[in-house]
Design brief:
By secondary structure, this protein is α/β, with parallel strands linked by helices. The protein contains six helices and twelve strands. It has one domain: Class I glutamine amidotransferase (GATase) domain (Rossmann fold, 3-Layer(aba) Sandwich), CATH 3.40.50.880. The strands form three sheets. Strands 2-1-3-4-12-11-10 form a seven-stranded mixed sheet. The structure holds glutamine (GLN). The site of glutamine has 11 residues, from helix 5.
């Protein structure tokens, strides 16, 4: 973790799972969206937060490190206990109840009744951008950045579909109660609307 993360401001305490991935980008977006970001690498740090972001990065690495840091069971407990959680890209993979195209031994934390296919857009195009109207996000379509992104292949009855990629029609944003996931990276564009939605979800639960 770099030292130049700004000092915590006010707002709800929102952790960022800080094992691997674009942690600093989520820190900045959360702070701009009115939250107090905290890094989470230890179970004791997880106890301090009202909500959690699981960043984009590499889900296989995040999973392995979460096991090494003995975070998987504490994370599963908080998520199943209703802690608001937002996963972007690799974070979406971590929140899937069912995973396709994971590597041997890769598990997920679960929390959203969905099947996610890892690296699903990979063979067509590795990275791309699209404008996606999102349910629950007011204003114009959101510029969505996809980087070796997953898609959602199937959802259970409790899952609200928030958005789909216009090119493929695939589901790329979902919500189930206090759990939110996007296949793309709102933390990379400077558009704070998804982070604001999540910070509101955290405030609603405090
Ligand atoms: N392909 C990555 C994975 O499997 C996700 C990519 C990302 O988070 N940008 O975790």
């Amino acid at each position: 973790m770099p030292d130049h993360i700004p000092a915590a401001a006010g707002g709800p305490a929102v952790g960022v799972l800080s094992l691997q991935g674009d942690v600093i980008e989520h820190f900045r977006a959360l702070e701009s969206a009115g939250a107090r970001p905290l890094r989470v690498r230890r179970p004791g740090e997880l106890d301090q937060v009202d909500g959690l972001v699981i960043p984009g990065g590499e889900s296989t690495t995040i999973w392995k490190l979460a096991e090494i840091f003995e975070l998987t069971e504490p994370l599963r407990k908080r998520i199943s206990g209703g802690m608001p959680v937002f996963g972007s890209c690799a974070g979406m993979i971590m929140l899937a109840d069912r995973l396709l195209d994971g590597i041997a031994g890769q598990e997920t934390l679960g929390g959203i009744d969905m099947t996610v296919r890892r690296n699903a857009f990979g063979r067509q195009v590795d990275s791309f951008e699209a404008d996606i109207p999102l349910t629950g996000v007011p204003g114009p379509a959101l510029r969505a950045v996809f980087i070796r992104a997953p898609w959602v292949e199937e959802t259970g009855p409790e899952v609200e579909i928030l958005g789909a990629d216009p090119g493929t029609g695939r589901i790329v944003a979902v919500r189930q109660g206090p759990a939110l996931a996007t296949a793309f990276h709102p933390e990379l564009t400077g558009d704070l609307r998804v982070h604001k939605l999540f910070v509101d979800m955290v405030r609603d639960r405090i």
